[in-house]
Amino acid sequence: MAKVALVTGSTSGIGLAVAHALAGAGMDLALHGLVSPDEGDALAQEFKSQYQIKTLFSDADLRNADSIADLVQRTQVELGSLDVLVNNAGIQFTAAVEDFPRQKWDDIIAINLSSAFHTIHYAVPAMKKAGWGRIVNIASVHGLVASVNKAAYVAAKHGIVGLTKVVALENVETGITCNAICPGWVDTPLIAKQIDAYAEKEGLPLEEAKRKLITDKQPMPDMTPPENIGQLVLYLCGEFARTMTGTTLPIDGAWTAQ
Asked: How confident is the model over 14-68, as pLDDT tens digits?
């Protein structure tokens, strides 16, 4: 019987790459994201046709614990189980602490941190019963170090790292592992827009702006392809990674080596 994976925030960027990696390994898949139901259903159908797997799509509001409970239950009922949980969904907002809007703080903490607690809370009982489970939390280099104007994001990602360790310790004899991946610069459309804006602001050629922006924080001038993170998630799902738990795995071009 195929394993079943739920990947939050999987309609673009890192989450989409992770979804492709898991589907390519034959896992049935619950996709989730902030697109219209029609777009989401179309994406689920693409995955179903390309990989010959069972799929579903949800646009559940991750700020709401009841919506998260429904998402986990729907995955278990419609796809038959929930074996691999990848908490990837996240949002960002930048401002100094004294200027940070209260609602932005609340939303970032809810989506980037609390939603991971709730998905794990609802997924773990069935994983324990099955005697097997893989939980991968997509944290960030900002789960290990800080940057200015990112109070909520850094707080949430540090929280994800702590949550990962607790879940791992609580499940060392259950067959469930829990790990966190901490990416630095990742080559996504969102980052491409950031590079374009930086190039325009500084009056620099695109490639020079890209290198300058990246190496301001990360010694290696290359961004990580999202597909590489998908492959790392897949590795953590393998039997050979069964003793890897409670870890934080930077994939950050030596950012945190400094």
From this structure: 999 999 999 999 999 999 999 999 999 999 999 999 999 999 999 999 999 999 9
Q: What is the DSSP letter of 59?
A: -
Q: Does residue 134 come out as left (phi exceeding 0), alpha (psi in the -120 to 50 range) or beta?
A: beta
Sign of the C-alpha dihedral computed for residues 95, 100, 105 and 106 taken in this order: negative
Q: What is the pTM of this model?
A: 0.97
What the block records as the tokens of 244 is 């890897």
State the Cα–Cα distance between residues 25 and 136, nearest whole angstrom.
Answer: 16
| Alpha-carbon gap, residue 71 to 30, rounded angstroms | 9
Q: Which two tokens stand for residue 101?
A: 């809007």
Choosing from 51, 122, 153, 198, the catalytic residue is: 153
Are 44 and 33 contacting, i.e. CB atoms less than 8 angstroms apart?
A: no
Both ends of the chain: CA-CA distance in Å? 45
Contact yes or no for 5/87 (Cβ under 8 A): no
Choose among 189, 188, 32: nearest CA to 111.
Answer: 32
Q: List, in order, residues 6 or more apart from 223 with CB less than 8 Å away.
A: 184, 185, 186, 187, 191, 214, 253
CA distances, 232 to each of 82, 127, 161, 181 (Å): 19, 21, 17, 8
Does 153 participate in catalysis according to the annotation? yes
| Residue 198, φ and ψ in degrees, nearest 5 | -65, -40
